UniProtKB/TrEMBL annotation:
<comment type="similarity">
    <text>Belongs to the nitrite and sulfite reductase 4Fe-4S domain family.</text>
</comment>
<keyword id="KW-0349">Heme</keyword>
<dbReference type="Pfam" id="PF00037">
    <property type="entry name" value="Fer4"/>
</dbReference>
<dbReference type="GO" id="GO:0051539">
    <property type="term" value="F:4 iron, 4 sulfur cluster binding"/>
</dbReference>
<dbReference type="InterPro" id="IPR006066">
    <property type="entry name" value="NO2/SO3_Rdtase_FeS/sirohaem_BS"/>
</dbReference>
<dbReference type="InterPro" id="IPR045854">
    <property type="entry name" value="NO2/SO3_Rdtase_4Fe4S_sf"/>
</dbReference>
<dbReference type="InterPro" id="IPR017900">
    <property type="entry name" value="4Fe4S_Fe_S_CS"/>
</dbReference>
<dbReference type="InterPro" id="IPR036136">
    <property type="entry name" value="Nit/Sulf_reduc_fer-like_dom_sf"/>
</dbReference>
<feature type="domain" description="4Fe-4S ferredoxin-type">
    <location>
        <begin position="187"/>
        <end position="216"/>
    </location>
</feature>
<keyword id="KW-0004">4Fe-4S</keyword>
<dbReference type="InterPro" id="IPR006067">
    <property type="entry name" value="NO2/SO3_Rdtase_4Fe4S_dom"/>
</dbReference>
<keyword id="KW-0479">Metal-binding</keyword>
<keyword id="KW-0411">Iron-sulfur</keyword>
<dbReference type="InterPro" id="IPR017896">
    <property type="entry name" value="4Fe4S_Fe-S-bd"/>
</dbReference>
<dbReference type="GO" id="GO:0020037">
    <property type="term" value="F:heme binding"/>
</dbReference>
<dbReference type="Pfam" id="PF03460">
    <property type="entry name" value="NIR_SIR_ferr"/>
</dbReference>
<keyword id="KW-0560">Oxidoreductase</keyword>
């Protein structure tokens, strides 16, 4: 049986204790679920050699190889490192970023989620925090990556504007809108921005430039989490500038490190101190 100190060291190397004595799941570093064929071949080889021939895909797009025996942990680590694959993060660290394929692949994608994910991963993966910190990037308001359930979430948006003189009342935008934010009645079109979720589908559907882009960029959510005490993230800020997104992220992590009590997630700190105080501290006012 491994000693507790040994288990702590193993955890830093990505090995998580199983319920079976002296067996571990080897967590591997993966960002945004974007895995190369070389990565997959190396993982399959390690699973055959050191596990039971299968892997577990985690809810955060990660890879774990279960049933690695204690006596094989060093060899398994060395094999992964030689393939350029480092350990995954656990404990009091910034976890791997999750991201959809964004505008590189998805028809609905409004931002380059994988590009943003790669930048965040290089800057912050595995860095120490008071408890844990999870980041998600999603391409549009469909929120396939559930950014509202993460400490820091980034969502693409496109705000439409109606140009009446270009409209031929073809109703393509009305049909494309899944939120019933566009209605056409008696030859007039009405765009209800209270119902609009800024998905941009009406802009893509319009063939006459009657629906155009008014604004586009990134919506930032803060303070989300799941678990025993779930909390939906607060929609905090919108910007068309990627540099602003990274500035807010940097200041948010600093705020969390400076203000969190033992065992608190970012959302707990915001609930205790207030969202307005959070905004004042990081020098960005919440957009309502």
């Amino acid at each position: 049986m491994a000693k507790n100190t040994d288990k702590d060291l193993l955890k830093d190397k990505g090995f998580l204790s199983q319920r079976q004595d002296d067996y571990f799941s080897m967590r591997l570093h993966a960002a945004g679920g974007n895995l190369t064929s070389d990565y997959l071949r190396a993982v399959a080889d390690a699973a055959d050699r050191y596990g039971k021939g299968y892997v577990h895909v985690t809810s955060r797009q990660g890879i774990e190889i279960p049933f690695v025996h204690l006596e094989n942990t060093d060899a398994a680590s060395e094999q992964m490192n030689s393939a350029g694959i480092g350990p995954g993060a656990s404990g009091k660290k910034i976890r791997a970023v999750v991201a959809c394929q964004g505008d590189r692949v998805c028809k609905r994608g409004l931002i380059d989620c994988q590009g943003i994910c790669e930048k965040i991963d290089k800057l912050y993966f595995g860095k120490p925090v008071p408890y844990k910190f999870k980041i998600a990037v999603t391409g549009c308001p469909a929120s396939c990556l559930k950014v509202q359930e993460n400490d820091f979430g980034i969502m693409g948006f496109t705000d439409p504007v109606f140009i009446e003189e270009n409209c031929v009342m073809c109703r393509l935008c009305e049909k494309a809108c899944e939120m019933s934010a566009i209605t056409i009645d008696n030859g007039s079109l009405y765009l209800d921005m209270h119902k609009c979720v800024s998905c941009g589908l009406c802009v893509k559907a319009c063939r006459k430039d009657a629906m155009q882009v008014k604004g586009q960029g990134y919506t930032i959510f803060v303070g989300g989490k799941v678990g025993k005490r779930p909390r939906m993230g607060d929609m905090f800020f919108r910007t068309g500038n990627e540099e602003v997104v990274f500035d807010i992220l940097e200041k948010t992590i600093d705020y969390y490190r400076e203000n969190a009590l033992e065992g608190e997630r970012l959302g707990d700190v915001i609930d205790r101190c207030g969202l307005d105080q959070f905004g004042e501290t990081i020098k960005y006012s919440r957009q309502k």
